[in-house]
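Hi D.,

Good news: the full-assembly prediction came through. Inputs first.
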Amino acid sequence: MLSFVLKDFIEYDPKLRVRKPILKVPSLVSEIVCYEPGQATATHHHPVQDEIWVVLEGYGEIWVGEERLAIEPTSMIFIPAGIRHGLAASPDSRLVLLFIKSPGITEAASVAPGSSVAAGAGATVPTTGSKLQLEVTDVQAEARDVIQVELRAPGGAELPAFEPGAHVAIDLPNGLIRHYSLSNDWRERDRYVLGIARSSQGRGGSLFIHQALRRGTTLPVSVPRNGFPLDPSATQYLFLAGGIGITPILAMIRWCRANGRPWRLVYAVRSAQRAAFLETLATIGGGSIHLHADDQRSGVFDPVPWLSGDPQGEHVYCCGPAPMMAAVKAAASHRDARTMHFEYFSAPSDGPAALPENRKPFMVELRRSGRSFSVPADKSLLEILEKNGIPVVSSCREGTCRTCETAVYEGAVEHRDYCLTPQEQETGNTMMVCVSRARSERLILDI
Ligand code: FES
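Then the structure:
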């Protein structure tokens, strides 16, 4: 038996919350975290670990997915794997938290090169660094310029769990990192299925996949992340998919069917030949599908008739090209923003990230190294960090993919991204350094 006196672990630091490890065994890991008033843990998630938080002392607020909750001594919160969460101590109260995560791996990101992630009973998935090493087990044409790619662990090990709306990042052999949504049933633990459209105007990711990806290729793949989670409290769902935006929505429709939730889909494509997964959609059932092919209807999809009402309890999920997203946002301006959910796969040409005006210079300080740099008006924060040899992983470089998300220690952020929720932007715990800037004169990053 091991026994611990938890009060002996309590310690505060006015600069940053204090984390004290208590126990780490293969089945679970436990720590105490102590917060001075106002200190916080940035929004994050654990891809494969469930977590329990128990408040030992003090008061604060937590957020799990879109829910927020005041916490007090003896509060206990369960956070399932894959759900984004964070917390902050009240401005006038210290807070002491005991957390227990299971299984006891710390993070996939901390797995040593060449080792493996425990993903299921007795099975392991090979990893390199933070990436799973997965094999391309199937490549099929789905529609014109759209292929379906299936990934599995060599040896058939169980993969880290995912939720509808989740995506993975793939390191392509040509040096690009690209993000693709998972389309299959979230209960399948032996494979990830992606839909990938060929884009001749992109930077070469999809072209490479369409031209060079073959069965048997092994690819470094991130554990699934979810920036487009389905709110299970909705009473009905309206899905608006444009082109390859159908991919995360297909996974959501599978969830609706499995949970008996009513759903409607409007699927907008340039031509019917480009409509992927139509046969699959038709076999799922439990909802209605309206296909809008521009070439058959003499024009682009008009979302106004679909959004003019405001049915009680309906949530809308929209994923498609930027003009469609803008039209949907305009048509739904009368609806509660908390019921509208968007996932961008490219940044709008007239969105906040594209606006050169009001870009002011500012100072950035890196808390851990103490280095500081000035960021001129015509350069992004990411460019300045890269120029000074600070490693920040990036992919889209336009604020849509969340790869460059960086924790903010101090300062006011001017968010210009398309991936944080309004609540996350308001909290200001993290920022996308590829597009977002400072509202204050100085930002201190937690790197
Ligand atoms: S690199 Fe994609 S959000 Fe910054």
